[in-house]
Amino acid sequence: MEDTLVLGGRKFTSRFFLGTGKFGSKETMRKAIADSGSELVTVALRRIDLEESQENILSFIPEGITIMVNTSGARNANEAVRIARIAREAGYGDWVKIEVINDSRYLLPDNQETIKATQMLAAEGFTVLPYMHPDLYAAKALVDAGAAAVMPLGSLIGSNQGLKMRILIEVLIEEINEVPIVVDAGIGRPSQAAEAMEIGADAVLANTAVAVAGDPVMMACAFARGVEAGRLAYLAKMGQEKAVASASSPLTGFLYDE
Amino acid sequence: MDLTGLKIEDLPVIFRRDDRALLEEMVRAAVDMTRRYFGRTISLYAPLYISNYCQNECVYCGFHASHVDMPRSKLTLEQIDRECAALASTGIRSCLILTGESRLHSPPAYIREAVIIAGRYFPYVALEVYPLEEKEYRDLYLAGVDGVTLYQETYDRQRYDELHLAGPKKNYDYRIDAPDRIARAGIRQISMGALLGLTDWHEDVMRLFEHVRSLEKKYPGVEFGLAFPRLRRVADDEHNYFEVSDREMVKIIAAARLVFPRAGISISTRETPVFRDRIIGLGITKMSAGSSTRVGGYIESKTDYEDGQFQVFDPRSFDEVKAMLIKKGFDPVVTDWRNIVNI
Questions:
Q1: Across the interface, do A211 and B91 touch by the CB < 8 Å criterion?
Q2: Structural domain boundaries, residue B314
Q3: Residue from A50, A108, A212 whose CB has the most chain B CBs within 10 Å, to mutate
Q4: Is B172 within the bounds of a domain?
Q5: pLDDT tens track for B128-141
Q6: Phi/psi class of residue A73: alpha, beta or left (left: φ > 0; alpha: ψ in -120 to 50)?
Q7: In chain B, which residue's Cα lies nearest the Cα of A110?
Q8: Nearest CB neighbour to B334, from listed A49, A82, A160
Q9: Residues of A in contact with B191 (CB under 8 A)
Q10: Cα pseudo-dihedral B6, B9, B15, B16, rounded to 10
Q11: From CA B129, how far away is CA B101, in angstroms rounded?
Q12: What is the pTM assigned to this prediction?
């Protein structure tokens, strides 16, 4: 069965996206991307050495992988826009993951500034993938602003806490149908990635849990399979989980001639 | 003890306990937290000393103004350009510009010129200079400063007064209020610290942490960094100080990581290579490499000071430090910022 994800006009077979930070070596990162089959990765512009190509992180990203530069370090919309423009001028394409964070303790995204940045960059022809706090109004505003996807956080960045935001993300999945919903941040285990996919997310982006695992390459593969399993379960239409057993003698049976 | 939700107010009890098992537990929790938020990476930078004139009389420092035998120098703008070129050619991309604390010899306009020159060579430029006015910080931010390092030295006001005999630095309040001015000026990173040993470190570390935490709440967008330089006694200084053992240093660093999970913590070259290498990953996220603390040290003079606060105990080159990190399973992060103010 063909089940491709269309995002920003491109088709993706894998719904597992990978962040490139925090790996112990660039070679491990390269192998994690290649072996997991991930087709879309995010790289912080701040980590790209524009002056030196020899150890440039980008030279470790396998051919054919879509790269979205992220605006890590931006504290407001204008800074995010500047970072995206530098990336485009340097030849890194026009896919940008917007991260606007003005809080160094929890690294929570600023939705208002993220919406502004999305408007500006979408108008300049960027494919904009905003990282956001799962708020319905903000998600709708991002869609109106021209976002190619909406990327709510599962829980705090790097926390490995999984889908703490589940009920709010479910609202986005139900209400936002124009663009894919990608769960980004806080996903600590493949089972949590599977859970995000089971509830109907279109893709999952992970970084920390993979990069700091004992065997990052194996963990990347585990995540890819978790995402795949969750996706299949979603497509197969899972039975509802129930807190109590279903009554074998229905209470409304008397209303029918049975 | 649940160390993951550790609060600053829990620390006095922990600091007073000489408990080997607790220290081991703290370090394990710190390693785990550092890995979670920084991964297996260590950022590298190098200092660039452009002047060593000083107007202050700090009893613990060999550079104090009345030390007339100390050779003084200040780089011209052309010399700064050549130093930057030499340092950048080693592969360094993050640079910390330092001057002695003399507004007279190194006025803000001179510092600003140095920042502009350094910005042509380094994507990240930080400053460690005497405290300035908010407007001066703002001008430097607009000229391309990404971070400022400023140590209070000690939070014990009386001790501060005893150890700083004369000069503008004698003004405790002007220094302690400087991080507020830096934050209001828009500068994105502020590194803070106390010179451990001037007074009982238990007190200073607590006050430092409380200071940083209160600033975090006021200026959440600022990235705060921490450093824990240990006092190195200079030859002619007879004062009594408070020794900080390696064990205590590790405890302080682990505690810092646990109460400030995402703060950058740096370790200086005044620590020995053996100690530096051992504590990598225990909370440290940043270290200097290939450092020269001489004014003009990257071109003109290759030898470093042999005594006191500015002696380099880790003489390894940038490439040697990188190789050591790789061997230990860390990715040396050379480029970690792209200045976006002036573009």
A1: no
A2: 8-333
A3: A212
A4: yes
A5: 999 999 999 999 99
A6: left
A7: B221
A8: A49
A9: none
A10: -130
A11: 6
A12: 0.90
Is A46 in contact with B337 (Cβ distance < 8 A)?
yes
How many Å lie between the alpha carbon of B287 and the closest alpha carbon of chain A?
16
| ipTM score of complex | 0.83
Q: Which of B209, B217, B188, B214 is nearest to B253 (CA)?
A: B209
Q: What is the CATH number of the domain that holds B63?
A: 3.20.20.70
Tokens of B284: 């440290």
Q: CA-CA distance, B185 to B207, in Å (whole number)?
A: 24
Q: How far is A127 from chain B (nearest CA, A)?
A: 21
Interface test with B, best of A105, A215, A219 (most B CBs within 10 A): A105
The reply to whether residue A103 touches residue B41, judged by beta carbons under 8 angstroms, is: no
- Dihedral of CA atoms B230, B235, B240, B241 in degrees, nearest 10, equals 0
| Locus of tokens 């000069």 | B167
Q: Which two tokens stand for residue B19?
A: 């408990």
Pick the CATH number of A5-255 from 3.20.20.70, 2.30.40.10, 3.90.25.10, 3.40.50.1820: 3.20.20.70
- Report whether B256 contacts B213 (CB < 8 A): no
In a domain, B1, yes or no: no
The domain total for chain B is 1
Amino acid at position A28, single letter:
T
pLDDT digit string, tens, across residues B218-241: 999 999 999 999 998 887 788 889
